[in-house]
Write a structure and sequence with these properties.
- By secondary structure, the protein is α/β, with parallel strands linked by helices.
- It has a single domain (about 55-235), classed as Glycerol-3-phosphate (1)-acyltransferase (3-Layer(aba) Sandwich), CATH 3.40.1130.10.
- The chain has 8 helices and 7 strands; from the N terminus they run ααββαβαβαβαβαβα.
- Strands 1-7-6-2-5-3-4 form a 7-stranded mixed sheet, with helices on both faces.
- Helix 1 runs antiparallel to helix 2.
- It is globular and about 55 Å long.
- The mean pLDDT is about 95.
Length: about 240
């Protein structure tokens, strides 16, 4: 019954929402080059995906976020539904890093590019560094938060080792790191599956980690501290 609901109800509605709101986002990008309107439309899209998937998110620790502030947002990565959950519940304008391959997909790539999200090529260290530098520029100059999944992709189980990209951007700009953890999302849409399962998941936001005064040499220690905080939030 759950599989039938996923295939006959959730998936068609998700596709419809993606087409409609994606089209509106592309139109909005003609008039708003900042990406802010696209982000607001993306939040509506994200909420619709959670509703159509019958996934309910319990958000904890949102009081740790200053809606007027800007952060380097860091979360574990369990499922394709992670970004909709974060878009729907975080009261911030933010941009995220997406695999470069997604920018080659018609419509999706155009939307990501015009909304101001950042391509990252993890197979090429030099290109990956360029993406981190651009992320630091966005945080430093535009005062907009950026989201990273420092595990480098979805983890099939547990919590994988973090890369130093988030620590690099935070130290470079002096922006606080905001650790977050999504729990239970992996079971709702496992890797390699099209079966979206209903139920509850948890989004936990920890206290910001201040980075003012830190130096590039502190990246390793900051990354270790960040990993421990996300692991703690996961419980």
């Amino acid at each position: 019954m759950s599989l039938l609901r996923s295939l006959l109800i959730s998936t068609p509605l998700i596709l419809l929402s993606t087409i409609v709101l994606g089209t509106l986002s592309l139109i909005a990008s003609i008039f708003d080059g900042s990406g802010n309107t696209q982000h607001r439309l993306a939040r509506i899209w994200a909420r619709s995906l959670l509703v159509f998937s019958f996934i309910r998110v319990r958000a904890e620790g949102l009081e740790n976020i200053d809606p007027r502030g800007h952060y380097v947002l860091v979360s574990n990565h369990q499922s394709l539904m992670d970004i909709p959950a974060l878009l729907a519940y975080l009261p911030l304008q933010f941009r995220f890093f997406a695999k470069k391959a997604l920018y080659q997909i018609p419509f999706i790539g155009t939307h990501l590019n015009r909304a101001g999200h950042l391509p990252v090529d993890r197979s090429n260290p030099r290109n990956s560094l360029k993406s981190m530098i651009e992320g630091a520029r966005i945080v430093g100059e535009r005062k907009i938060s950026v989201l990273l999944f420092p595990e480098g992709g979805r983890a099939p189980k547990g919590l994988r080792e973090f890369s130093e990209g988030a620590a690099y951007i935070a130290i470079k700009t002096g922006a606080p790191l905001l650790p977050m953890a999504l729990s239970g999302m992996r079971e709702k849409l496992p890797m390699g599956s099209i079966h979206i399962r209903s139920g509850r998941v948890a989004l936990r936001v920890g206290p910001p980690i201040q980075t003012v005064g830190m130096k590039p040499a502190d990246r390793d220690e900051l990354t270790r501290r960040l990993y421990e905080e996300v692991a703690r939030l996961l419980g």
